[in-house]
Amino acid sequence: MTDTQQNNYQADDQIIEQTRHHMANETSQSLSIATTIDEMHAQFSHLYKLSRDQPINDWATRAEQLDNLELMLSERQDSLAQAISADFGYRSESETQFAELFPSFTGISHARKYGKKWMKPRRASISALYMPAHNEIQPQPLGVVGIMVPWNYPLFLAVGPIIDALTAGNRVMVKMSEAAPKFAQSFAEAVARYFSQDMVCVVLGEVDIAQEFSKLPFDHLLYTGSTAVGKKVMAAAAPNLTPVTLELGGKSPVIVLNGANLESAVNRVMMGKTLNAGQTCIAPDYVLVQRKEHEAFIRLAKEWMDKHYPNIADNPDYSRIINNQQFKRVKGYLDQLPGEDVHLLTDAEPNIDTRLMPPIIVSEPNDDSEVMQNEIFAPVLPLVHYDTLEDAIDYVNARPRPLALYVFGDDQNEIEQVRSHTVSGGLCINEVILHVVQHDLPFGGVGHSGTGAYHGQAGFERLSHMKPIFVQNKLNGMNLLLPPYGGFFKKAMGIMLK
After folding, report:
1. Element (H, E) at 47
2. What pLDDT, on a 0 to 100 scale, did the predictor assign at position 432?
């Protein structure tokens, strides 16, 4: 940034601060109005121009935005959690703290600790043939990043990408999910109070706005949601050659190895399947277990529910299905199955009036049943039998590559067999879900479960241009290789081409 640009930026800061105070006095009602297409295009044009005129190349500005984000979450965490709960009909505040607020705060802390280091130019190795020149890689902001947020974890799946985008020096536009309107409104109001619209702005609206949002010529577009919609987002981005990161879903399997501690496996699988009532893209979708363990698995699951979610219909720790449409979809899956294959793990029945979907195990469903064809996204857990580990691996590999794969057991040879003979977005050994909150691990899918990865340094690099730079030394021999090509050139080529 030149001195003139820096002075202009500081002058703009005064205007930005005045605007922020003005927006802080606006009513939340004004923010609940959907963004129009014209307004959205104007917001994008404003951010795009700023990204070209005033690229954010200094760490101080980036760190300030992370501080603003942390302050926003700290001061608004209660109201944001209440808005999420209102959208779900009820969601445990403890779950929001554990699964959304905590990883958001630790993500900010991680970025603030390492971001300054990540943005520095770094040396790259160079062949001895080109010395004494040297190579560098210089991370640069892409410009304007678009983020499309799903409804199931609307806070963490907005804040996580925002952290990476801001750390990389980008400006951000966020399209909130229309399926979680109360949270969308609350989040938009919070962003307007804590950020200048020169840095972060929120877009509200229905599917038509989302469709237009995905057509904007962002420098990068990150979408989290279903595979079906992900295909549409990629198609909409293609005419602009907008690079995309797609965090999708699919069916994340569990393999319980022969001889595994079944009680421990059930404990972790049920935790992952009941969190947010199973509405998690990396929730265990089905379990591959040996036939001899089938009845014990169901018994242990019932005991686990009695211990962790007693009186589930009134239990304040258990969440609801987001809306009637999703509830009816899952209930439809169950209604197609033989009654003797459906095992309730509690005394409660599915209740559309309260959108309570209690955990249910399904025994050995047919492969062509909807519960096995579609991502369940609810606390319904199919048990699928296998005879040999090779059979289990073949079963996983015959299907689209999952976003997550979970394996339980102590036999290191068999664990290694699963590691080396399967491909998945992520892998957990004797655990579920927790890989998503490891800021030193990239998170993303592969194939139908997504493209690209982010979180931590991987997210910083995903949302940066990692510019290669070749620096020639004043003393070099390149002139010796210029035409007319004589004897020296031929000798040199003869050596290098051997």
Report:
1. helix 37-53
2. 98
Give the per-residue pLDDT at 478. 87
Q: Is the Cβ–Cβ distance between 73 and 96 less than 8 Å?
A: no
My answer on whether 288 and 355 are in the same domain is yes
Same domain assignment for residues 273 and 167: no
Say if CB 277 and CB 357 are below 8 A apart: yes
Neighbours of 269 (CB within 10 A): 24
Three-state SS at 307 = helix
Structural domain total, the chain: 2
Structure tokens at 298: 């169901």
Residue among 298, 266, 258 nearest 389 (CA): 258
CA contacts within 13 A on the Cβ side of 156:
20
Catalytic residue among 95, 281, 293, 375: 281
Q: What gap in Å lies between CA 378 and CA 52, rounded to an integer?
A: 44
Is 462 inside any structural domain? no
Asked if omega into 484 is within 30° of 0 (cis), the reply is yes
Residue type, 91: R
pLDDT computed for residue 380 by the predictor: 98
Q: Are 230 and 282 part of one and the same domain? A: no
User: pLDDT tens, 457-494?
Assistant: 999 999 999 999 999 999 998 888 889 998 888 888 88
Give the length of the chain.
498
Distance CA 203, CA 184 (A): 9
Q: What pLDDT score does 33 carry?
A: 74
Under a CB-based contact definition with an 8 Å cutoff, are residues 424 and 401 in contact? yes
Q: Are strands 453-454 and 443-444 parallel, antiparallel or unpaired?
A: antiparallel
The domain containing residue 213 runs over which residues? 3-248
464-471 and 134-141 beta bridge pairing: antiparallel
Q: Which residues of the chain have pLDDT under 50?
A: 1-31
* Contact (CB, 8 A) for 61 and 1: no
Residues 193 and 275 in one domain: no
Asked whether 167 and 66 are in contact (CB, 8 A), the reply is: yes
How confident is the model at residue 32, as a pLDDT? 55
User: Is-catalytic flag, 201?
Assistant: no
Note whether 229 and 257 are same-domain residues: no
| Annotated active-site residue in 95, 212, 247, 293 | 247
Of 414, 441, 468, the domain-final residue: 441
281 flagged as catalytic:
yes
